[in-house]
Design a protein that fits this description.
Rossmann fold; alpha/beta; four-stranded parallel sheet
Length: 256
């Protein structure tokens, strides 16, 4: 790992909770030249890639029809019913993968035990940024200090740091804070997610007058991104755009 972005991530993890230091060793091991295993199935590979051909072929990229606002996979490239019913506060969102199957497995592994996957995911996310206006700075969806200590790292922070390194867009790491715990969002309806998030985020005035790119791991209903965007707008951000590693596809069976 080289460059100021990589060094910043190393320093971030090294100075964090002891669990983060253990994860740092896993990151170093995974990035060493001796590591020649598929990141998903563990099959030996010798071409320098992250995945074996079989696993890579099962990853669903979000490069087909999608909603031009929330960025989720749709049957046709038009604004989805959910965005029509509840227009997001952010201007536009994009995502690299469609959350499901092997793609979902990849994201879950990244969140739970394989932080080194941030490099590959961020590279795929960077490819989607051409669909967005040039932002002035990058922020990531924060965790409370306790939640980050318990996990050992903030997966969205790792993605944001690497995106900053890849693109040269400044990382505004301290501009956004989550100051109160919330229930896990998984399994909650859109309305329940909005209520759960409440007013748990706050942004400082460094975002005033700037176009801000928000980084997160997964877009499900968009409630988290919307809450963050609302917070940034209240702090004076001019525009808010979002990029995530994956997004849950839009379904006509989903109820708004």
């Amino acid at each position: 790992m080289t460059g100021s972005g990589g060094l910043a991530i190393i320093a971030y993890m090294k100075n964090s909770h002891p669990r983060a230091r253990k994860l740092l060793e896993a990151v170093r091991g995974a990035l060493s030249h001796e590591n020649r295993l598929c990141r998903l199935c563990g099959t030996e590979i010798y071409d320098g890639r992250s995945f074996c051909p079989d696993c890579y072929g099962k990853i669903e990229f979000n490069d087909g029809e999608s909603c031009p606002v929330c960025g989720r996979k749709t049957s046709k490239s038009e604004i989805c019913i959910e965005c029509k019913a509840h227009l997001p506060v952010y201007s536009k969102a994009v995502s690299a993968l469609v959350y499901g199957g092997v793609s979902a497995q990849l994201i879950i592994l990244f969140k739970k035990s394989r932080p080194y996957l941030y490099r590959w995911l961020a590279e795929e996310m960077a490819k989607k940024l051409s669909a967005l206006p040039q932002p002035d700075g990058i922020v990531f969806v924060p965790m409370t200090r306790k939640a980050e200590r318990d996990r050992g790292y903030n997966q969205s922070g790792l993605l944001a740091g690497e995106l900053s390194r890849l693109t040269g867009i400044p990382l505004m790491g301290g501009a956004l804070e989550k100051y109160s715990e919330t229930k896990a969002q998984k399994g909650l309806s859109r309305e329940e997610r909005i209520t759960n998030l409440g007013h748990c985020f706050r942004a400082d005035r460094s975002v005033k007058g700037k176009k801000i790119l928000v980084v997160d791991d997964v877009t499900t209903t968009g409630a988290t991104l919307n809450a963050v965007a609302e917070c940034l707008k209240k702090a004076g951000a001019e525009e808010v755009y979002c990029v995530t590693a994956a997004s849950v596809p839009y379904s006509t069976e989903r109820r708004v």
